[in-house]
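User: Could you go from structure to sequence for me? I need the amino acid at each position, not a summary. Structure tokens:
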């Protein structure tokens, strides 16, 4: 393959990686904004935790791949991934705090 074809393939892979992360982040946002999802149940908290874990795994994979891809946007994309991770981390902390506060207030037995 020539350099132009390699760069095009690397750009496409980078775009796919970013798209997967954005989709996972969107799932988390939708979950936390859904009024039917209760933050007081163990099952909903586990679902949220699984969504967050899936996001972090995808972000780890993307960061690793982006560091070796030959694309002119590599640093920009890595910063973008870091910004998304920071937003998800803040959301994760807020939801965990809310969940624990609800557990304490309800005096429910810890799972």
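Assistant: Here is the amino acid at each position, in order:
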């Amino acid at each position: 393959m020539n350099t132009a074809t390699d760069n095009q393939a690397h750009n496409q892979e980078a775009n796919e990686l970013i798209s997967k992360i954005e989709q996972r982040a969107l799932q988390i946002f939708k979950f936390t904004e859904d009024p039917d999802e209760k933050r007081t149940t163990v099952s909903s908290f586990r679902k949220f935790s699984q969504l967050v874990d899936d996001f972090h795994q995808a972000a780890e994979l993307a960061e690793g791949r982006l560091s070796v891809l030959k694309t002119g946007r590599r640093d920009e994309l890595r910063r973008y991934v870091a910004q998304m991770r920071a937003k998800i981390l803040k959301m994760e902390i807020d939801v965990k705090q809310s969940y624990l506060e609800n557990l304490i207030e309800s005096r429910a037995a810890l799972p």
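One structural detail worth keeping in mind: The two ends are 55 Å apart (CA to CA).
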